[in-house]
Specification:
The complex is a heterodimer of chains A (609) and B (411).
Chain A lengths: L6 H29 L1 H12 E6 L6 E2 L5 E13 L7 H12 L3 H10 L8 E7 L1 H9 L7 E11 L6 H4 L2 E3 L2 H7 L6 E3 L2 H5 L1 H4 L4 E7 L5 E4 L13 E4 L3 H11 L5 E6 L6 E7 L5 H4 L4 H8 L9 H4 L9 H10 L15 E4 L2 E4 L11 H7 L2 H11 L1 H10 L21 H8 L8 H6 L9 H12 L3 E3 L4 E5 L5 E3 L4 E4 L4 H16 L14 E7 L7 E8 L6 E7 L9 H15 L26
Parallel strand pairs in A: 2-10
Antiparallel strand pairs in A: 1-8, 2-3, 3-4, 3-5, 6-7, 8-9, 10-16, 11-12, 11-21, 13-14, 15-18, 16-17, 19-20, 20-21
Chain B lengths: L11 H23 L5 H4 L1 H21 L2 H25 L1 E3 L2 E7 L2 E3 L1 H19 L7 H19 L4 H18 L3 H16 L3 H19 L3 H24 L2 H11 L9 H14 L10 H4 L11 H34 L3 H25 L17 H19 L6
Helix pairs in contact in B: 1-3, 1-14, 1-16, 3-16, 4-5, 4-6, 5-6, 5-7, 5-15, 5-16, 6-7, 7-15, 8-9, 8-10, 9-10, 12-14, 14-15, 14-16, 15-16
Classes of the chains: A alpha+beta (609), B mainly alpha (411).
The complex binds zinc ion.
Zinc ion binds next to helix 16 of chain A.
């Protein structure tokens, strides 16, 4: 049996126990203060420092004449620091009426932040000054709510440039991870805002603040000076706002479609319109869910950029492709005549109609282009054959993007034998597809920008330029980098072939289907077209250029569900050309009124296709 | 040897200096911790601490001057008052942090648990001295346990788990000092181990294997005692889950977070993590007085009370920490020496009780801020802000000096 320990030993046992305990404490102290000193010192530094990003001003966007199209203006942004909010539902309820927001939207925004909860989440941009004052005065009621003066993007021409310029949005957490952007910072989401985001966004600055554990800001950190933000580059576009507005106003509020005006020699886009439009300013500040849904759910697809993403049958505008290919292959000369047009032609057991049921008789190539006789081109298509047609269509660029510097461009569709075999089976289709392809119908689809680029090549001696909207980027220091025009490809047509095609196009406006869109002061070439639309009224095409001998501007317009090209699309092109040549001084000012242009069914039904 | 009432003879002077240095460090640290506090009520805490220091010095000299014999006589009265104050707390006490620990007297407050420590030491020392039964008598052990049990239960009821632990430890040390056989110590210590081990089935099985195959053969005790020991351990282990559920949420949380502070870095584990950051970032020489960022910027919770050692370690580094520990070490050394020297059983018990109270509060507190022990809410004697704690620390110091000075007195 273990009995009493002698008294002195008890003293020494207690002393020994105490010494052991103190040694243990000293060991832990040495471990923390010596071996882990660097780690904990770093942690204490991070503890007290709050990195407050200062958004850089986004670069402004101007048109080719320096008119301001988009810029940042100062605005108040209200943010919530998630780590400092304990009852977000309650806080959201208090804030919602002040921010004119939905409670749930506030809660969702805060909940979406899963990491870095001590950094503010922007809840509402562009808040009115009185609302900011209320938040400032009753800051105790809104724990974790901070506001900051930063910028909001403003688009001065709003709707008329929405697809081209696009809009901005906040970087979400996933993107922040992938692309190393700061969550909540502003990024270009569409249009040139997205295309040139790298240059426009600038470099964010940062303030290092010393903060207490409760988030109380003590003041700027002495040993780490702030870094000022660096404003983004100024982006100058090739767009001429006068032409842009002229093109835009042609469509009014009811018509849908696309209009592209460019300089065929350089590929510079002078105007780029897709209708209907939306207001990009909605995206810059705060877009409510209902607003966004009404845009996204609109049957007229206002968010859809028809200039680069809309695919349509080119209709008769494709006839110069058929003609060019046949000429190049030596299948015809301008003297070659085909079987006469009697308002159509019999092929197999089907009667293929000409647009003009009165018939055109037997025509040569130039007259066939001028009158856009379908029967001529049915026969020419058959003669050319699918293999050669698709070879030329692809060589002309209809199977690729144009390289326009706006993201999201789609490729049309130039089918070949393989595609038909794959789609319909080896024996379930026949040569008759060439009848349709020859006149730009059937499975042949183009985007407006593809068609514009093709025609620009035709009138530019076969040299196809890369279309672009960027003119230059200018750094805040004033260094200007101009964009240099690039050649995209050459058309597979000889100079002789091109001369014949241009002669045909000239005649279309001079005496053919677009004769009523002639401008007395300027010679003009072009081609009308009607894209058959199985879902409703046909789409109206017109591609025109002027002056005919030395083209400075080329316009490509499609108006959806508007019928014949000559009645709607051609006058649009004419209106913009008039504006263009007025500015050049070739057409005298004051101009004849451009409007009214067209209202549906105004008695030009007999106009040629 | 010439007897004198001058406390500065026989080492009283150096003990006063050790206590005074710790208290001055306390005032400096309380100033550093709170002078910039956003809460204006805390900004003047350092002034209050100075007032308490003056008071404490008076109490110290009084304690060294009043013969221990007096306390021996009045011990039951002290004990009764302490019990009444603790009972009163349950009825009238100011509730802070979910615990009733204070009597508020205007700007100052009194913690009966602190006063209870002194009363308890006197009472237990008196009982152990007066009772003629041998210390191995179960009746004596039971009666002593009752003295400790009543006051401990009242403290647990507050609830103040940290002080309760100190009562239990001081009790065991005093019983050990009085010569209680080691096997009876096992009766108190093994149930605690059983309770901790019961959190996991495997740990509990290992614990019982050790108890039956290692501890029981070693003490070679009677069959009756062995059965009692095992039965108590079984019962405690089985009921500890019930006891667990009776703990306050914050107490449960503290134990959970102690086991894994990373669990909730912004919640309960926050204190421990921030304390370690403060201590670790202090390095060898510290960030300098008033320059501790963890302290200055409110990252340390309760930094003027329970976590004041972190402030010291951050601003004065390892050097400052070691100085504080060395001052305590000196006081403990003197305390144990006084107990060993004393020919008077009562003074020896008082000296060992006072020393163990100071020592275990210091160990539990520093162990806590270093992350070695759970956050138990035990102040650091002399250093933590708080009048009751400071006064009682000085009373303990005075008792040690008194016992040492009068070592020749026989009971
Ligand atoms: Zn015809």
């Amino acid at each position: 049996m273990v009995d009493q320990v002698p008294k002195t030993s008890r003293g020494w046992i207690l002393t020994g126990g105490l010494v052991a305990a103190i040694l243990l404490i000293l060991a832990k102290l040495i471990y923390l203060q010596v071996f882990q000193y660097k780690y904990y010192f770093q942690m204490s530094e991070e503890n007290r420092i709050r990195v407050l990003p200062r958004s850089a001003m986004r670069g402004k966007i101007v048109d080719r004449e320096g008119r301001l199209l988009a810029s940042d203006r100062p605005a108040y942004t209200v943010s919530i620091i998630p780590s400092e909010v304990s009852k977000i539902d309650y806080l959201a309820g208090e804030l919602a009426p002040l921010l004119e927001m939905d409670e749930k939207a506030i809660v969702r925004k805060v909940a979406d932040r899963r990491t870095r909860k001590y950094e503010p989440v922007a809840i509402r941009r562009d808040l009115s000054f009185p609302a900011v004052c209320i938040i400032e005065e009753s800051s105790e009621l809104f724990p974790g709510v901070v506001y900051q003066l930063d910028q909001t993007r403003t688009y001065y021409y709003g709707k008329s440039l929405c697809h081209l310029i696009g809009y901005t949005g906040e970087v979400d957490e996933r993107e922040a991870k992938d692309q190393q952007f700061r969550t909540g910072s502003i990024i270009g989401r569409a249009g040139v805002e997205r295309q040139y985001d790298q240059s426009l966004r600038g470099i964010d600055g940062v303030d290092y603040l010393e903060v207490s554990a409760t988030g109380r800001i003590i003041g700027p950190l002495e040993d780490r000076p702030s870094k000022d933000p660096l404003m983004g580059d100024e982006l100058a576009l090739t767009i001429d706002m006068d032409l842009q507005m002229a093109a835009d106003s042609c469509f009014g509020d009811t018509l849908s479609g696309a209009a592209i005006f460019l300089d065929p020699k350089t590929g510079e886009i002078l105007a780029l319109v897709s209708k209907p439009t939306f207001d990009p300013n909605l995206f810059a500040g705060f877009v409510s869910r209902s607003e966004y849904q009404s845009l996204a759910g609109d049957e007229r697809l206002p968010l859809f950029d028809r200039t680069i993403r809309g695919t349509y049958p080119p209709g008769s505008t494709a006839k110069i492709l058929t003609a060019g290919a046949a000429l190049e292959e030596g299948l015809i000369t301008t003297e070659t005549h085909f079987g006469p047009c009697r308002g159509g032609m019999q092929f197999g057991n089907r009667f293929f109609k000409c647009w003009d049921k009165r018939g055109h008789g037997s025509l040569g190539l130039l007259a066939a282009l001028e009158q856009s006789c379908d029967v001529y081109f049915y026969q020419l298509g058959l003669k050319l054959g699918l293999e050669k047609w698709s070879k030329y269509a692809r060589a002309c660029g209809f199977d690729q993007t144009t390289g326009l510097d706006i993201p999201g461009e789609k490729i049309g569709h130039a089918p070949d034998e393989k595609w038909y075999e794959k789609t319909y089976g080896k024996y379930n289709w026949n040569k008759s597809v060439m009848l349709n392809l020859g006149i730009g119908q059937g499975e042949f689809l183009v985007t407006p920008i593809e068609l514009a680029q093709f025609y620009a090549g035709v009138v530019n001696h076969g040299v196809v330029m890369k279309p672009h909207v960027i003119r230059y980027l200018r750094t805040p220091k004033g260094e200007t980098n101009y964009y240099h025009a690039e050649i995209a490809r050459g058309l597979p047509f000889s100079e002789e072939t091109l001369e014949i095609l241009k002669e045909g196009l000239y005649r279309v406006v001079q005496s053919g289907t677009a004769v009523r869109s002639r401008i007395p002061e300027v010679t003009m070439g072009g081609k009308t077209g009607t894209a058959q639309n199985p879902h409703g009224e046909d789409h109206s095409w017109f591609v025109g250029y002027a002056p005919a001998l030395d083209p400075q501007i080329l316009g490509c317009v499609i108006v959806e569900n508007a019928g014949h090209g000559s009645t709607v699309a051609a006058p649009f092109v004419k209106a913009v050309f008039v504006k263009f040549f007025q500015k050049k001084g070739i057409i005298k000012m004051p101009p004849p009124p451009l409007l009214p242009l067209v209202s549906a069914g105004n008695g030009v039904n007999s106009a040629a296709n | 040897m010439l007897q004198t009432r001058n406390p500065f003879t026989s080492g009283g002077w150096s003990m006063f200096v050790a206590g005074a240095l710790l208290t001055i460090i306390s005032i400096l640290l309380v100033y550093s911790a709170n002078h910039n506090s956003p809460d204006p009520r805390l900004q003047d805490d350092w002034v209050k601490q100075i007032i308490w220091f003056v008071l404490a010095a008076v109490v110290f000299f009084a304690t060294t001057a009043i013969p221990l014999r007096m306390h021996e006589i009045f011990a039951p009265i002290y004990y009764g008052i302490a019990i009444l104050m603790l009972l009163g707390l349950i009825l009238f006490g100011a509730s802070m942090f979910g615990a009733q620990r204070w009597y508020s007297l205007g700007a100052f407050s009194i913690q009966p648990a602190e006063i209870g420590k002194v009363a308890f030491i006197f009472m237990l020392a008196r009982y152990l001295t007066y009772s003629r039964r041998p210390i191995s008598s179960l009746r004596k052990i039971a009666a002593a346990s009752a003295i400790c049990g009543v006051i401990t239960l009242l403290v647990v009821r507050q609830p103040d788990l940290g002080s309760a632990v100190i009562f239990a430890i001081v009790f065991l040390v005093m019983m050990f000092w009085e010569g209680m056989p080691v096997k009876y110590l096992l009766l108190f210590i093994t149930p605690v181990a059983s309770m901790i081990a019961s959190s996991s089935m495997i740990a509990w099985i290992v614990f019982f294997a050790l108890l039956i195959f290692a501890v029981v053969p070693l003490i070679r005790s009677s069959l009756a005692f062995t059965i009692t020991l095992v039965a108590i351990n079984l019962a405690v282990g089985a009921f500890s889950s019930i006891a667990w559920n009776r703990l306050h949420d914050y107490q449960q949380m503290r134990i959970k977070i102690f086991l894994d502070p990373g669990q909730d870095p912004l919640g309960a584990g926050y204190q421990i993590i921030q304390s370690k950051v403060a201590i670790g970032s202090g390095g060898l020489l510290g960030k300098g007085y008033l320059a501790g960022s963890q302290n200055k910027l409110d990252f340390l919770p309760l930094r003027h009370t329970d976590f004041i050692f972190s402030v010291a370690a951050e601003e004065f580094g390892m050097l400052g920490s070691v100085v504080i520990i060395a001052l305590f070490g000196y006081i403990f050394h003197r305390g144990i020496r006084a107990a060993m020297k004393s020919r008077n059983s009562f003074s020896a018990l008082v000296a060992i009780g006072a020393t163990s109270a100071l020592a275990f509060q210091m160990l539990v507190n520093i162990g806590m801020v270093l992350g070695l022990l759970p956050v138990a809410g035990v102040p650091l004697p002399f250093v933590s802000y708080g009048g009751s704690s400071l006064l009682v620390s000085w009373v303990f110091l005075g008792l040690v000096v008194n016992a040492e000075r009068n070592w020749q007195e026989y009971s």
